[in-house]
Amino acid sequence: MRIKIGYLYPDLMNIYGDHGNILTLVRRCEWRGIPVEVVALNIGDPIAHGEYDMFFMGGGQDREQVMVCRDLQETKGDDIKREIDEGAAALAICGGYQLFGKFYRPFEGDELPGINVFDAHTVAGKKRCIGNVVAKSALGGKQGTVVGFENHSGKTYLGDGCAPLGTVTVGYGNNAEDKTEGAIYRGAIGTYLHGSLLPKNPSIADFLIEKALGRRGSDLPLASLDDSLELAAHAAALKRAVRTH
Ligand code: GLN
User: Of ligand 1's atoms, which has the minimum distance to the CA of residue 59?
Assistant: First the structure.
């Protein structure tokens, strides 16, 4: 068993602590004795068929999204989509999530084509959605909720080809209208939740690790970990979100 993670554009798409997601995935593999390798995939870097078990892309502002969009369209977007269709896991946050959809239409400039992992599209909203978020998780898990922090102007609308990650009970979520937050398609998760997401939401981290291992044919259940610290952080974020709502 081993996991190879493709870390997409770490120098361009990484805000509000999104790198913490990679640290969490690496630690939760290491604590279980699962060898894990993280490879930075920058502009111009290709992806070979079957090379990666998981992809991660953090958030970024419109300017970085334009640069990344061009590389995805010219170099590796179709490959990422193919790998996910074939079972690879993925986590895309905010600006990265938007580019994993069909398109992102910012306020200024051209519409940015996405890589069609998620049957979803994004249009810039007039008001920024900023604050703590709590959502009832579609993945269930020990917590049953997903907590994090959002800061986006984009409003994302899901089609029938993907399901929401959760239903918002505090905060804005995908579009501040339909109470959905994020998207799930096979082993890929998109979400607006920074924070970073995974340290406080260990069941999502384990979902991704299980999907990545499944890519290599392993269906063994993950060894359980002492998540007391993670669950305490989750509870504190939940309490703070409700209090500041
Ligand atoms: N530029 C995008 C928006 O504002 C994404 C921002 C982000 O990644 N936090 O919606």
Answer: 8
Please report which helix (H) or strand (E) contains residue 184, including its range.
strand 183-185
Count of structural domains, the chain = 1
Q: What is the DSSP letter of 194?
A: B
- CA 155 to ligand 1 center in whole angstroms: 10
pLDDT digits (tens, 9 = 90+) for 224-237: 999 999 999 999 99
pLDDT tens readout for residues 128-151: 999 999 999 999 877 799 999 999
Catalytic residues: 94, 194
The tokens for 41 are 């995939």
* Domain containing residue 202: 3-244
Output the six-digit token pair for 156: 């994302």
Q: Looking at residue 219, what is its pLDDT?
A: 86
CATH number at 222 reads 3.40.50.880
Bridge partners, 181 (sequence order)? 166
Predicted model pTM: 0.98
Indicate whether residue 154 lines ligand 1 (CB < 6 A): yes
Distances (CA, A) of 77 to 33, 60, 191: 31, 17, 18
